Structure formats: C-alpha cells, structure tokens
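quick q for whoever's on today - can somebody do inverse folding on this one?? i tried earlier but teh output was garbage lol. tokens:
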C-alpha cells in the first residue's frame, strides 16, 4: 500500500534535528522548528487511509519512506506500533526514538531531519514542492 503526501519548502527550514523529522499542514515555520522539512502539507497522520492506519498499528510493521524534491530523493524506514493513535490534525512526525504521541507516524526510524541530504535541504529552503511517499505491506 502506498500513500503520497505533498508538501512545500520554506526559507526557515534547517533540518538539523537529530531524532525527528516532521511535515506539517501549517503554512509558517520559525527557525526553532529544526525537525520540520515541509509545510503546507496535503495530509497529516489523521488523514491517512484507515487501511494504512491499521497496518501501521501492528507492532514492528515496517514502513518505508521516500522523499523526493527537485530531482533528488532520499529513502529511509521506520516501524509502526500498536500504541499509535495517528490522530493529529496537522502533523506527521517520524522518530528515531520509541516515543509515541498523536503526531507520531513511525518510531525507530533509520533517519531524522539531520540525515536529509543537504542538496534537498537547500532546494526546500527555496520554497520548492516535495513529496513524501509512504509504503507499507
């Protein structure tokens, strides 16, 4: 199963957070939001299809991600958990840790914002559009 979230870059994107990566529906971003790599997203965790949410809520279900921006791509993965509510109305957060919140899409991620190639970050800082593809069996 695949789901695509479209988002937009912003001049304040730094992508320096070492443990999380976030995409939000919010249109604005301050420099403090160092985990945020995209704004004005087309979806939050709440908007994911129910079938996908059910698969994500299986312990240790592997979730693959592909970020594509301006001809560059970056792939990584994380895991689902039965405790994920997937109920936040504006945010998608992918975490290296096992912390669960209503914003969390995946835990034990192989990447965070800091791991995003700097070429992608530079393009996002121009306000370019990007996609987050979410794959789960």
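ok took a stab at it. sequence:
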């Amino acid at each position: 199963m695949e789901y695509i979230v479209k988002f937009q870059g912003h001049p304040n994107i730094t992508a320096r957070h070492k443990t999380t990566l976030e995409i939000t529906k919010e249109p604005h971003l301050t420099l403090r939001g160092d985990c945020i790599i995209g704004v004005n997203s087309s979806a939050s965790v709440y908007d994911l299809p129910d079938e996908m949410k059910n698969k994500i809520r299986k312990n240790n279900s592997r979730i693959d991600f592909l970020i594509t921006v301006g001809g560059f791509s970056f792939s990584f993965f994380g895991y689902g958990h039965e405790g994920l509510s997937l109920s936040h109305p504006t945010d998608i957060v992918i975490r290296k840790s096992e912390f669960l919140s209503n914003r969390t899409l995946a835990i034990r991620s192989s990447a965070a914002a800091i791991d995003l190639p700097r070429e992608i970050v530079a393009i996002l800082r121009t306000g370019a559009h990007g996609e987050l593809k979410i794959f789960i069996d």
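fwiw The first strand starts at residue 2 and ends at 8. also The CA atoms of residues 1 and 53 lie 11 Å apart. so keep that in mind when u check it
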